Structure formats: structure tokens, C-alpha cells
Amino acid sequence: MDEKVYGWWLPPDVSVHGAKIDQLITVLHWFMLLLFVGWGAFFVWTLFKYRAREGHKAIYAPVAAVATKYIEGAVVVVEVFLLFGLSTPVWLAYKNNPPNDAEAVHIRVVAEQFAWNFHYPGKDKKFGSGKLDLIGGDNPLGLDPEDKDGKDDIVTINQLHIPVHKPVYVEVSSKDVIRAFNIPVLRVKQDTIPGQKIPIWFEATAPGHYEIACAQLCGLGHYRMRADVLIDTPEDYAKWEAENAPPPQEAPAAAAPDTAPDNTPAPEKK
Amino acid sequence: MNPTTTPTATGNGHAHDHDHGHDLERHGHHELPFWRKYIFSVDHKVIGIQYAVTALFFLLFGFSLMMIMRWQLAYPGQPLPLFGKLLGETAMPGGVMAPEFYNQLGAMHGTIMVFLGVVPLAVGGFGNFVMPLQIGAPDMAFPRINLASYWIFLPGCILMMAGFFMPGGAAQSGWTSYPPLSDIATSGQTVWCLAMVLIITSSLLGSINFIVTIVQMRAKGLTFWRLPFFVHAQLVTSFLLLLAFPPLEAATVMQLMDRLAGTSFFLPSGLVVSGEQLKVAGGGSPLLWQHLFWFLAHPEVYVLILPAMGIVAEVVANNTRKPLWGYRLLVYSVIFLGFMSFVVWAHHMFMTGMGTTMSTFFQTTTMIISIPSVVILTCFIMSLYGGAIRFNTPMLFATAFLPMFAIGGLTGLPLGLTASDIYLHDTFYVIGHFHYVVAPGTLFALFAGIYYWYPKATGRQMNATLGKLHFWFSFVAINFVFMPMFFQGMAGLSRRLYDPTVYAHGRGVQALNVVISMGAWGLGLAQIFFIINFFMSLKNGARVTENPWNATTLEWAAPSPPGHGNFLTEPIVYREPYEYSVPGHANDYSPQFKAEG
């Protein structure tokens, strides 16, 4: 991972939707700086000019300050623009337009104290179902071995692989407490609420190796709720998927040669 | 003022140091025993000072917790010199802070600063001491309720501290105490809930008392448009406390039930903690708590800032020697702020996955609420314009409040807008933002208030040199504490991290953590000037008469310190609160209580 990308300002943005968020943040800070420097200059000048001294008297009659009305008016206009011109459209466009279901990569994120579980549906694009009673050390999601949808599922811990230039549709949830799934470079943040599956989506624009952080206090290990996100080229992603696909379970030795290696159907047996 | 209401309320036989000249029959002339006069007192001034001293102690204590945390943040995993060993092996094994202990310090810092520090000082302390004096009342409308308020508050504070001695330590789920984390936390959280119930009850008793007092007990001639701005601010604050705290009290009891009685108000079905299914009924909602909590905690932000604005208004008017600019505009603005503060709470919850209609509504209300804040700031700056500004210690703190509050307010914009909040939510940017509002904002205003009203409370001035040292060192140090946090937040660093260097983006801004910690410890040292000044001036401060600042409002008509019953003669109000430098008058101040200016 390249440490040098992280500095004292926004880290690089490698997401499709992030540019507009960054633009808003930048515009806001110029606006804030302008207001503060303007106010501040007038403020300091006033403090100096109207300091108490020999022969200087305060002015009783209130000054008719027309300028302040214009400034306040301008602040309102700018805020309306920020609200309805920049922020709301970006937010609505992002939140109301989930990616086309067919082409998106579907992933489920299940957080627990203190790890991120990533659940991929595998080749059949169907998530295997889980059962509470089955949750255990080697089965953090309680996946049901009886469920054929789950046979080819991939589960990783603290390592999220996603392909570049492909929309990723993630449902986040949590087994125990609330936390926030946060990928700074992808401008992604979503609270994970136990009992809810909350959908989010993003699309990476460049390959790379970055960090996933937890943004909501989740217990004594909150600080180490760190995971890696690996944005892979399509080839790398396919390779990773192939390498991590679970081997056909308990397939009878005789049946194995008959199944095509590239499109292994879940063994019918048992 | 209605003298018939007080005799029954103040009860039988209170001693007083001064002759009142009115209502003599309602006071006995024997001295009260010490414990009735200074401990279980019904005098609003004694209660105000009790609140203020308690709150100042907790502000120092809460700040000390943070100074310990700042060691771990600046030098993660290194043993804390000197104090490390003293805090015990569970909290600091080998002198190195444990993550659980870090979370306890964080949760308790927030809780203490807000509920045991700033609010009790701003409302319980200044509100109790100053407000009845400013309206020309002999006491609060319900002095015994006032007494009850403090004596419910203090056990609440002690109970909150007791949390540190529970097995597993104090509450450690943040001052926000989000369930399910808080529901499954160690027993310190139970103590937190119980203490909060007491503290909230105390606040409710105080707020109803304030409202009745301001409405019923104003001196003759003191119309609403002649009230000092501080009283308006306290009135709005009291309504906020009265209306916003009950939902949190209910929610806290619900959390207590979840923890003790096996209910599942905030626990959904199917929770699995450390590989074990949680044996609870389930079916609850963790988000319900957040709604109830923020329904209080957002108005609470205005409970923190409005009394501070009130103090700044008093100090600015007095030291610019001219009337406040836009007094009525200021009053309308705080009323509007108070009203709007009830409909912005869900901007704390933009990342919970709420629908876009909801979030658009709440970001719109959030932008609307920024407008009265801009108006208030403008009024204060325009109040300086044309003045003859005296830079005494209270004025230095009040002056510094303005740009600090401006930074705090402006940096609220990117957090209040949903799109930019995606990135900045729950980062150090948030910490920088609200601390600018509360620390160099509210706390500076509260310091201004202490330096300003200390002569009224004690009859002596605080030392000006120590005051100026306190101001300048604090002002410089505090900006080293909170300004770098915006950069850490922009870098994406999450809040509440025991060790930020776990993250590469945290390592990128780790140097700033050293700067911040140095700033925090420097800020701690700067408070020594204040502590020395506060106690030394009790004995050595220059004696003052009733009106040392040549001020105009009613509290300066009473002796310094005022005796029981406050005023020697019943005050009558003749004019607006801030008649400074009236043309054609000999003095540059025309007090409300003098027939001829």
C-alpha cells in the first residue's frame, strides 16, 4: 500500500461519484474562508479603530448598516445555492440511483467485534442463506452447508476485493453493534445497523490498495476495525475469484472429472 | 415583582446581611445555621455559586481526562510518565493505556464536559446567580425547587463519578451511548444511566423555575423589551431544557430497562455478540435511541451556546460603552434559533441510511438554522463598530468568542450538507467543529462571565494581569488544539480511535496529534493563572462598590455581594438595558434603575 497518498487534506478520490463531493467540500471551504477573512478583517479593524482612548467617545445612535443586510442576504443566497444547487442534487443522484442489478458486483458486508466479513455470492450470483445457530469460529456468517446457493460463496475477513470500472452494490449489516463502513478514497460511508441490511454502491476508477475504516465507536477494538480494500483489474479480480472459490465439497472422486472446470455446478449429492 | 409570592416560598426566617427596606416582616432576624445558609440554602445566589463551583471542578476534571488521552494519541502505546502507574494495572497496564480505559475517558470526558460542566455553569451557575438580579427579583419563584435542583444534581455528579469504580470501569460507549453497544456494555453504563436520570431531573426542575421567575418576578417597569439580552437567552434556554430533556430521560430509563430488566427497546432480534447469540427478546430498534438522544442533544447544543451569547452581549455592551446593535433582532434570532433547534436533530444521523426525503428536510432546516447565527454574529460585530472599546479581561474573552464561534459555525456547513457529510461524518472534522463552538466559544464566554460578575458575587475584583495571562495563553493554546483537527478530518481520520496510527491515513496526520497534545497540555497550564486568580482574589482582590464596571443593568444596583433578598430598595426600571453614552448626559452610562441618567 502506498502511504504517500495520505496527507493533510483529502486523500485521492478513486470513485465515480466522489468528484462532486470533493467539489462541494472545496467550494464550501473557499466560501468559509472568504467569509471568515472578510469578517475577520473588518473585526480587527473595528477593534483597533474604536479602542477606548483619550478624547474618543462611543457613538450612541445605531449605525444604519446597509452593508450587513446585503452580506446577510448574500450568505442566504449562497447557502440556498449550496443546498439546492450542489449538495441535494449530488446526494439524490447518488442515493436514488442504484446500479443496474445485472452488471453490478454484489457483496454483503457483515461487521462484528472486531472484524469485517465480506460475503460474495460466487458464480451463481446467489448468496447462500445463513442461520443464527450455525455461527461459529470457522463460519462467521452461519452459512448453511445444506444450501446449494452457498456452495460457491466466498467469505473473506478484513479483505475486500472489488473490480475496477464496475459498479459494486454492497449491503452492509452488523452482527452486534453499530459501526460505520468507511472507505475514504471511495468517498463511501454508511452506518452498519444490526437488524438492517442497508444498500450502498460505488464504482472505482483506478486499481489500487487502500483502507477500510470503522467510523463509529464499536467497542474497545474500534481502532483496529481496519480492513484492506483491493481494487483489482478485471483480470486480477477474475484470478482472485477463481483462486478463492471453494472447492466442490465432498464431490465423489468418480464424478469429479465429468464436471466442467470453468463452470462448476454445485454438486447435487447429499 | 410580586412580594406576596415569596414569603411562602422562602419560608420561615431567613437571615440576611443587609437590611432590605422592604418586606421586612418576611425575614426573621436570627442568623441561620451554617448548613442552612451555605449548604442547603434556598438563596439563588448561594445555589448559583454552588452550581458554578461544582461545574468548574468538573470542567477541570473532564479536561484532565482528555489531557491523559492526549498522551496516548500523541505517543500511542508508550507508557505515560509519572501518572501512568498511579492509575492502576487494569486501566494502564505497565503505564500504557488500555483501549477500554481510553474509551472510558472519552465517554466520560464528553458526558462530564456537557452535562456536569458547561450546562451547570452556564445555566445553573450564571442563570441562577445573575438572572434574578438582572430582573430585580429578591429570589427565584420557587427557592425550594431551586434547592432541590442542586441537591439532585450533586448526587447525580457523584454517581457519575462512581462509575469509575464499577467492575469494568466507567461508561465507555461514548457520551452518545448508542445501543446496542451501550446495552451490552459493562455495569459502568448502568451507573451512567442512573446518574443521567438524576441530572436531567435536576435540569427540568431548574428550567421550570427559570421560566416562572422570568415571567412573574420582573421588577416594576421591566417589560420584555427592557430585559437584558442575557435574560432572554436564559428564557429560551429554559424552554429548550424543559421540552428537550424529557425524551432523553425516557430514553435513558428505557436503556436502563434494556440493561436490567431484559427489555429490548433498542435491541433488534438476532444479535450475535462474540459468537454467542444474545439471549434477549429482540424486536427493538437501535435507531430509536439515536432519535431520542439527538432530539435532546441538538437543542442541547443551543443550551450550551445561548447563555454564552447572553454573557457576550452583556460584556460587549458594557465595554463598548454603547447600546447593543440590533437588540430586538438578537432577541428574535435566539427565539427562532430555539424553535429551529427542535427540527434539525437528524442531521446527526445522515449516515444511518435514512430516506432522501428525510435527509433533504433535515439538511434544509440545518441550513435555515445557520441564518439566525449569522445575524447574531453580525449584531455583535456591529455592536463593536462605533464603540469606545475597553479591553479588560472579560472583554478579551468576549471578543475572542466572536471569531472562535464563527469558525465553529462555518465548519458546521460541510457537516450539515448531506453530500459533504458523507466524507466528513464521524471524522476529526466534527470534533474540531463542535469544540470550536463549545470550547473557545462557550467556555471563553463563560470565562468572560466569571471575570465580569466575580466582583458582584464576592465584592472583589479579580487580578487583571493574571486575567490577561490566562486569556492570551489560553487563546493561543486552544487554537493549536482544535485547528489541526480540521486537517485530520479532511484526511479522513475517524474519531474515537485509541490508536490512529493503525491506519495509513492516520499515520499521515500523526504529527498533528503531537501538536494537538502539546496545545492541550499548554492549555492546561494556562488554567493555573485562572485557578490562582480565582482563589487569591477572594482574599486579595481590590474591594469594589456595587457598580465597578459602570454598567446599566439591574444586578449592579444591588450591593456587592448582595445580601439575602438582593436589593436594599425595590428597584424600578426606567429605560432600556444598554443606555451607554447617551448624548447630553454627564456619565457615559444611564442605568436602568436610576430615574435620571
- For the record, give the distance between the C-alpha atoms at the N and C termini of chain A, rounded to a whole number: 44 Å
Q: Termini distance of chain B?
A: 23 Å
The H-and-E topology of chain B, N to C, reads as HHHHHHHHEEHHHHHHHHHH
| Integer-rounded radius of gyration of chain A | 27 Å
- How many distinct domains of chain B? 1
**Main pleated-sheet profile of chain B:** 2 strands, antiparallel
Largest interface by Cβ-Cβ < 8 Å:
A-B, 93 and 99 residues
| Number of E strands of chain B | 2
Q: Return the CATH class of chain B.
A: Mainly Alpha
CATH H-tier superfamily of chain B: Cytochrome c oxidase-like, subunit I domain
Low-confidence stretches of chain A: 251-270
Q: What is the 3D shape of chain A?
A: elongated
CATH superfamily descriptor of the largest domain in chain A: Cupredoxins -  blue copper proteins
Helix tally of chain B equals 18
Task: Describe the structure in your own words.
- The complex is a heterodimer of chains A (270) and B (597).
- Chain A is built from three helices and ten strands, in the order ααββββββββββα.
- Chain A has helices at residues 18-49, 66-95, 234-244, and strands spanning 105-112, 115-120, 154-157, 159-163, 167-174, 179-183, 188-192, 198-203, 208-214, 227-232.
- In chain A, α1 (18-49) runs antiparallel to α2 (66-95).
- The radius of gyration of chain A is 27 Å and the shape is elongated.
- Residues 251-270 of chain A have low confidence and may be disordered.
- Chain B has 18 helices and two strands.
- In chain B, α8 runs parallel beside α10, α9 (286-320) packs across α15 and α16 (464-490) packs antiparallel against α18.
- Helices cover 61% and strands 1% of the residues of chain B.
- Chain B is mostly helical.
- Chain B has helices spanning 5-10, 34-39, 44-74, 83-86, 99-134, 143-162, 188-216, 229-260, 286-320, 327-340, 356-384, 393-410, 413-416, 418-424, 428-458, 464-490, 504-507, 510-540, and strands at residues 272-273, 276-277.
- The model of chain B is unreliable at 1-28 (pLDDT under 50).
- Chain B has a two-stranded antiparallel ribbon.
- The chains are: A alpha+beta (270), B mainly alpha (597).
